[in-house]
Design brief:
- With 258 residues, the chain is α/β, with parallel strands linked by helices.
- It is 31% helix and 23% strand.
- The chain has helices at residues 55-62, 85-89, 108-113, 123-136, 152-163, 182-197, 209-215, 233-238, 240-246; strands spanning 17-26, 29-39, 44-48, 70-75, 78-79, 93-96, 170-174, 201-205, 218-223, 226-231.
- The protein has a 6-stranded mixed sheet with strand order 6-7-8-3-9-10, sandwiched between helices. Strands 2-1-4-5 form a 4-stranded antiparallel sheet, with helices on one face.
- The longest helix is centred in the C-terminal third of the chain and has 16 residues, at 182-197.
Length: 258
């Protein structure tokens, strides 16, 4: 299926995401320790690791939920470190969460329009785009359904396409495949691939490792707040440091966090 046409434009949309030396401590615990990587435009990057390895904290540092104790986040030449998540959206960075952050008392269509409420000059275009994106993930018939009445998987699909309303350069996704029906998981994987083909980059945290390896061409494994391996799916799964990271937590391919 064709990805709905973009409405917004920005000078930062085609720039790389650069993460340099991120560090975050919570009390006496170092959650992220010197994490650095680059996400070139059009990249599908998977982020794996056992519980407590720092994956979600890394996403939270990138999109401004936490301010890092050290390090920088940039898109192109624009420094994003410490900015509020709403500000980062204007620079092409959006985020989805393990538990979908949807507005349950309003409809699916109304949820779609929330990110562009301040852009009333293009209201007709945004409504058209919202309807096209809902159709893109099979939610067109639920456009007038309150989000509270959608299944958990449908809420994840809604949050995903809502993140696309601002034509992001980079989408951060936390556990998009966890706890959903296999058919929803397959649809999510297909639609992420479709959007990526249009040049949008993704950084995806997942414990659904077989699904992630099918989707991503590049994978990072974290352990104890640091990156222990970075390469193709085959390179990462064959790396003895990755096997070591998962010891005591189950084999990498069978790992699940619910």
């Amino acid at each position: 299926m064709t990805v709905p046409q973009r409405v917004l434009t920005s000078g930062t949309r085609s720039r790389d995401l650069q993460v340099e030396g991120l560090r975050k401590r919570f009390g006496g615990q170092v959650a992220v320790d010197g994490v650095s990587f680059t996400v070139p435009a059009g990249t599908l990057l998977g982020l794996i690791g056992p519980n407590g390895s720092g994956k979600t904290t890394t996403l939270n540092l990138i999109n401004g939920v936490y301010r890092p104790d050290a390090g920088q986040v940039r898109i192109g030449t624009v420094t994003l470190t410490g900015r509020r998540p709403a500000d980062l959206v204007r620079h092409g960075l959006t985020r989805t969460f393990q538990t979908p952050h949807v507005f349950t008392t309003i409809t699916a269509l109304e949820n779609m329009l929330v990110p562009v409420l301040h852009r009333s000059a293009r209201r007709g275009q945004f409504r058209e785009k919202a309807l096209a994106l809902l159709d893109f993930v099979g939610l067109a018939d639920h456009r007038h359904t309150p989000a509270s009445e959608l299944s958990g998987g449908q809420q994840k699909l809604l949050e995903f396409v809502r993140a696309l309303m601002t034509d992001p350069a980079i989408v951060l996704m936390d556990e998009p495949f966890a706890g959903v029906h296999p058919s929803v998981k397959e649809l999510m994987r297909e639609r992420i691939a479709d959007v990526n083909k249009q040049g949008t980059s993704f950084v995806i945290v997942s414990h659904e490792i077989p699904d992630l390896m099918r989707l991503c061409r590049e994978v990072i494994c974290m352990s104890d707040g640091t990156i222990v391996a970075h390469g193709t799916p085959d390179e990462v799964t064959a790396d003895p440091r990755v096997v070591q990271a998962y010891l005591g937590h189950g084999a990498a391919g069978r790992r699940s966090e619910r």
